[in-house]
Structures are given as structure tokens and as C-alpha cells.
Fold:
Amino acid sequence: MPSRPLKDRTWSWFISKILLPAGDRAFGQQMMQRYHFLQQAQWWDPQRVQAYRDEALAKLIRTSYAEVPFYRQQMEAAGVKPDDIRTAADLVKLPVVNKTMLRSGYPDQTTRDTGQKVYEACTSGSTGKNFCIKEDAWTAGWYRASFLLCLDWADWTFGEPHLQTGITLNRSIDRRIKDRLLRCHYVPAFDLHDDRLDENLEQIDRYKIDHVWGYPSSLYYLARRAKTRGWNRPLRSVITWGDMVYPRYREMIESTFGTQVRDTYGCCEGMHIAAQCGHDNQYHIHSLDVIVEYLDADNNPVDANQTGDVIVTRLHPGPMPLIRYRIGDRATRSDGQPCRCGRGFELMRGIQGRDTDCVVTPTGNRLIVHFFTGVLEHFQEVDSFQVVQNERDSVQIRIVPRQGFSRETEQHIASTLAERGAKDLRIDVETVTEIPLTPAGKRRFVINNLDRPSNSIADEGT
Structure:
């Protein structure tokens, strides 16, 4: 890799050594301190990683028992005392919790006072069902530090230009400042018309961008458009998050952009869970931040190389601890063999959840899952939803309503979706009492019944 110009290296140094640490001090986040710790700790041997993890777990359990009524009640009902949980293996003594359980006690029974300013983060996640947590700057610093570590693995340096696809186009002042300082070119993940994709490719050329990040489905369409145009400038990194990286997505992106896709796995509940380092397609679990279990339908651990429900314990309590939390995804447990990179973190063989579709509009735009979640998660009157496309010019949105849902809410949802990119679709809103699961027990919340392609690599060309 050619040496970067002196002015770029100076800017990177200024951001990482001066600007971001100053921001941490101002907001009480400590992201950079945690990031520098992780840069060293990732090379610990597995025994040292496990010792750190177990010590953090024991502290988490003591704190949650003492300060969070929900977990104290759960532990007492199970006949478990805080000192009974000393290692990750002891977690089986505690019940598995889910969104419904946490939602019923939120916020009085499920949160604690951290002494910091607390804010609410709501998401519809991978299930289309709204769920809110409390978060503070310290918690945000932890998961952002873990994500920065993933960027390290992809050979990105602070301040290097990068193009990011996303759904938050109405950038707040702090986000605009962040974009400017880190040289982030933020583009819509839900406007995937060919002319918009051409503009994105021109941006990559104009600003000499070597790093492209975002939702796999949006990057797949960008790569497919690039291949159609004969655009084939190699990139240094492609980083994905939020959706499944199907084999056909990975093949198209990697063959077009000449670099490996490094997928990352996290959730909006305030944790970054795992990421690929680039040596193979397995995922490094952030073992200093989370404990991951894989359970079958009876809540028993699955064997190596078997798929189970993902159960996560976040080692940092934050304002709202998450202990044995069922995310709603499924993943495959690794066989325990270490990665060739030498890092001491546990491995996850692969992620099987978050199966999604894409709505195609009459003008050729592709509305990925996060287009809909990015709108509907802000409507507290919506309990859960599902989007179905049976005709090219219309979609049906099935909604399980909550208190306050009205005809005005329906109209507001439809108009907001139209403003954001679905203006050429007729949007029909239907209220229902429940949204059924698939035979596999999943809740698909975007279903395209129009010539929907298989997820196999052999079906490329769609």
C-alpha cells in the first residue's frame, strides 16, 4: 500500500490523539481510552480474555442484583444469589429474558441510575417490533470503541475518506461535524435508483475514496451498478452491517471492488457483538464486551457447528443491563479452533438470522429493510409491522397497533414513507392483531412476492 500524504497522516494523528480524546472528556464517553485498551487486549491469550470476562460478569451480576428490580426478581425466582454467578458457564442458572419481558417492566423496573445523562434509544431491530432501552455516554463509548476496532481490522485510519450508506439523512449538527472531521460521505441506503448509484460511484472517484461501508443490500446494488458500467477501481475495504450478507451479495461486491467484505454484527440495544477480521468468514466475538450463547428451542446449548438462538449478555451494565438477552437472531457456534490472525477472542461460525427482502418501486428504486425500520421505529403507536409487496405499484403495511394509533397515524406513516423515497408506491395500511411467524419461527417483516430471487449464488443475474 503506498504511503499516505503527510497532510493526511497529520490529520489522522490530530483526530485520534487530540480531537476525539477531547470530545470524550467533554461528553464523559471514554471511547478512545476503551479503544486503545482493546487494541492491546485483542492479542491476549484466550485464558487472559476469559479471566477478564468472568471478572466483569461477576461485577455485572452484583450491580444488576443490587440496583435493578427486574433482575433481582428474576434471580430470586430462580433461587440464585449474585455469588453463584462467577463464570460464563454459570449463566445457565439464570432465566433467558426477551423483549416482551423487558418491555413490561420498562423503565422503572429495568433501569438504574448511572450518574450520567441518560437518553432513550428505540429500534424495531430485526423483528419489526418496537423496543426501547436507556443508554448513557459511557455505554455508547464501549460499543463505539468496539466498532473502531473493527475498522482497524479493515485497515481504515482516522480521517481517511469513506462512503457510508445509511438511513439518517437528516443529519444533526453533531453528526454533520463528525462527517466533516472524519471525511465521511453519507449517502442514502434507500435511494437505489441507477442515477443515484451513478452519483455514488462518481463521488468515490472524485474524492479518491478507498473505503465503502453500509448495509449489504445497498452495497450489493452499488456493486452491481458498477459492474454494469464497467467501473472496477479496487477499494481497500468494504464493511457491512445490519443485514445478512448473502453469498450472491458477497460475490458481487468482492468481485467488483476487489477486496474482502468484512461483515460486522451488533444490535441497537447498545452493544457490538462480533465482526470479521478478513482471514476467513468466521466472526470474532467481542469477548471483552459480551458473552454469546447459542440455545435450542428448549434453551439448551447447541453443539459446535450447530445453529441456535443468539443469547447475549453485555458485560457493561449501563443504565439498562442486558443479561441472557434473546436478541431474535440465529447464529452458528464455532468449533473452538482459533483464527489464523492470532487474536484471543472467541469465534462465531456464521449468522443465520435477519432474513430480509427488498421492495422495488415502479421507477426502479430498491427499498431495503432499513428504509422501513428507519421510519416506523419512530412511531410509538406501532407495536410491530410487516411490509408486503404483491404488486409493482403498491405495498401493504400490516401494523399491530399500540395505544394512540389512529387514522391520522396511518396517514402520517404513509406520507413519511412517500417523502423518504416511496412516493411512486400506493401505501395501504392495515391494522392486525398479530403478525404470524414463519414455519422456522422467524418474523419476516419485508416480503416481496414479485419474482423474488433465491438467496443462492446460482441465482445471480436477478
